[in-house]
Amino acid sequence: MIAAVPHQQEYDLCVVGSGPAGITLALEYSRLNRERHVLLVEYGYKGQASGNDLDDTIEIKNAINHHSPYECTNKGLGGSSATWGGRCVMYDEVDFIDRPIVAEGCTWGVDLFREMANYVPRAATYFECGNPVFDLHESPEFRNARIAEHFLEGIVTDSVVERWSMPTRFGDRYARDIAERANLTLIQGYEARDFAAPDQTGNVSSMLIRDVKDKKVYEIKAKAFVLAAGTQETTRILLRNTQLFRNLDTIPTALGKYYQGHISGKIASIQFTGNPSKTDFGFLRDSDGTYLRRRFQFSSKFLAEQNLLNTAIWLDNPLYFNPKHRSGAMSFMYLAMIMPILGKKLAPPAIAHSVTKGKVTGISQHIWNIVRDLPQSLTTPASIFVKRYFLDRKLPGVFLFSPANRYALHFHAEQIPDAANRMELGLDGESLVVHYELTEDDIHSVIKLHGVLDTWLRDCNCGELVYWYTEDELPDAIRSMSRDGIHQSGTTRIADSPAKGVVDENLKVWGTQNVFVCSSSVFPTSGQANPTFFLGAFAIRLAEHLSNVYENSRVS
Q1: How many structural domains comprise the chain?
Q2: Is residue 1 part of a domain?
Q3: What tens digit of pLDDT does each residue of 452-462 get?
């Protein structure tokens, strides 16, 4: 049910943040525990202004490689799913192996990775991404097909896929479920402020929340609290509430540190040797209509042995802004995206930037491309527009067939957990300062794995890579093109002790008995995967864990 102000009662569970993780956790816990009462607290509210105090008080130290706060998160019911693309990706075994390159930064283990498989099917239901099969070897329909003629699997694979949600806007999709759940109360327009200090057993009795509009403060009492406010705000709340660690010898040194995203961009094209019509350049459709897409990946064994960072590489279009692609459809979509009003309606800022790269260039050549390719210059975008904006399950992206069997390659690579990449409070104790840089090892791994892919393709007689830069130019090119801040992780990482991390394997904050974190900030390594879906699986697992903890305490 919906409440205008907090009910003055003790809740069984208070969840801060109503993004995909918070909504999934609150709904799942309230479903499993019909007699227990859940409070879901959201900072955003209907009719809110375009700006907000939280994003306005974040300082990004590296604007080249990190998006602005307003491009990274959304306030309001549904959180960042309001502009989420819908890509659902699984993490890999290598992400849970402590390799030398991550310098003891992998503080979770393979047993946890294997356990998480139990929660993936339920997460797929919430995310509406179909049957949770992420490897085509498990799909009778696709297991014998390859990405292109002559390709063979080995240390390089083509069978791991990304699955695509509707995309599900969690706020719109689950608003009715929340309203109709008698034991679930949603309040919007409240900021989580201060926790009571834990008692000697680590129990935290209450938390103060503040009305965003009139600044009135309310006390919320609960048997358990979960911070699911995203990496930035979850980290800021913990940095501001160090009294939570009073039962420890010291505040966990990992708090706010080891901030990661992904290294991402394009430095090469792939030229296949086979029949262009036999190349899986775009989307596959599962039996239930879910969109799938292949990715080149590298085996966990190979990455661990070669001490390289996990990386996915997929087929992509040439750079839209460069009219040399000679595609009328691409030129039309580029021009539409750079139009001030229309462009904002077509895609969120971060996705629009991935198309335009912030460049307005070659207008006359783009217009000539459109004229030369008529009528396909208009009919192809029109067909795409209908599939992307008028169907329930929307076309996730645009990938155009290449008669020459040549495609750009987009890389999406793991970052090293570097303590220098961090979030910290400003001198006022309220603002959040974000330090984020790329390391030489981050960049070297991307270059090395492109070379591995090139060699593998040549050995298979499947194709070869055509680089866009000289070897000497590659590091600077990667450093200048990669921009993240959307896939935030690492700052409250899982570890087996407070000396190494901030939360334990069950996501409980060290030094407490009943404060938990459900955010990708708990992921010690970023892997190659977008974190949203896998975090949903952790939300399911946490709902089950909290249910069991409550039941055990009642029995005892």
Answers
A1: 3
A2: no
A3: 999 999 999 99
